[in-house]
Amino acid sequence: MSHVKAGGTAKNIHNNPGQRLGVKRFGGQTVRTGEVIIRQTGSTKISGPGTFISRDFTIHAAVDGVVAFSKVRKSRFTGKTTPRTQVSVL
């Protein structure tokens, strides 16, 4: 026989804040070195010239310039190509 009474259920415990993902600087906007351009989960957008990608897949500006987006075909390990958006700073 149990020595602890029933605890019931907790329903209001799943209130985590959002991660604030998304595009922070849009095409045509000027950026300075180190500024965040995109916060993302996984590599949905890839970094191009003038940008670098950090450990949590955030894309930063490596140089001062203007943000530009372009569509590219990225080759996967299997040889299949998938469309990706490439972010660059010119």
Give the amount of beta strand, in percent: 35-45%
Given as residue ranges, the uncertain stretches (5+ residues, pLDDT < 50) are none
Which structural class should the secondary elements be placed in?
A: mainly beta
Tally of separate helices: 0
- Based on Cα principal axes, name the global outline: elongated
**Can you write the helix and strand succession as a string?**
EEEEEEEE
What is the count of β-strands?
8
Radius of gyration: 21 Å
Helix content: under 10%
Q: What is the domain tally?
A: 1
The CATH architecture comes to: Beta Barrel
Give a description of the structure.
By secondary structure, this protein is mainly β. It has one domain: OB fold (Dihydrolipoamide Acetyltransferase, E2P) (Beta Barrel). Helices cover 0% and strands 41% of the residues. The chain is built from no helices and eight strands. The strands form two sheets. It has a four-stranded antiparallel beta sheet, with no helix packed on it. It has a four-stranded mixed beta sheet with strand order 2-7-8-4, with no helix packed on it. A hairpin with a 5-residue loop joins strand 7 and strand 8.
At a glance:
The chain has 90 residues and is mainly beta. It has no helices and eight strands. It has one domain (22-89): Beta Barrel (OB fold (Dihydrolipoamide Acetyltransferase, E2P)), CATH 2.40.50.100.
